[in-house]
Amino acid sequence: MIPLKPSNPPPAIPTVQEFTGKVALVTGGSDGIGKGIVAALVSVGVHTFFCGRREDVGQATQKELGEKAHFIACNVREPKQISALVEQAGHLKGHIDYLVNNVAMDPNIPVANVTLEKFMEVFETNLRSYYLTTQDALPYLEKGQGKAMVNLGTTNYMKGIPGMTAYNATKSGIVGFTRSLARELGPAGIRVNMISPGWTVTEKQLRQGMDDGAGRYLIDTQCVKELMYPEHIASATLFLLSKAATGVSGQNLIVDGGQVVQ
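Predicted structure:
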């Protein structure tokens, strides 16, 4: 007979207790959305390893966030560096509880001008690195207690923004990667989900031309009349990593203030 209630019910909300002392790996966590995710994990007591190519930026973030933030210089286009990154994260306690694949590059180049070399750079950064990081991290995730992954996508591929074809092609591939991986790893108790942020206010976006006009456009076209920041993405990430989301896997959560409504 099927029981009326679950034998191990999930908590109603994510709790600090479940995160404290756990180990996470975040790719591309030195700034922007990645930094927001690292900061959120550290704030609930997670030993959080994160990578980036710029030593100065990564070290500054590590110093700012405190002793539970661990920066490792890594170029995710180099498979051996990915393996070394994962090994260092896994070495702390012999396992990894949470994996967040976040690293990305987003060149705005007309498709006719995208060289093979540039396309491969985008592909290797945005999609291949997710695959290789996951492969290397899998033995550590199987030993962990958190057993949850989040892959970062984008709403750009849903809107078909011109000039972003290479970026959108690689980012849309994360959807298939996430859904298939959720099926494959589910029997091992590992949940895999995806978050697709919309246009998010970061220092990089402000440098690249996100101005008052862009802000007004977002407010006008979103259901929620406020701009999105890395903290909005980070809180959604914590939910998907938490036991409160035990029943959620293989999903793509859009965090864009309701601009894209599916």
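Summary: Residues 53 and 75 are 5 Å apart (CA to CA).
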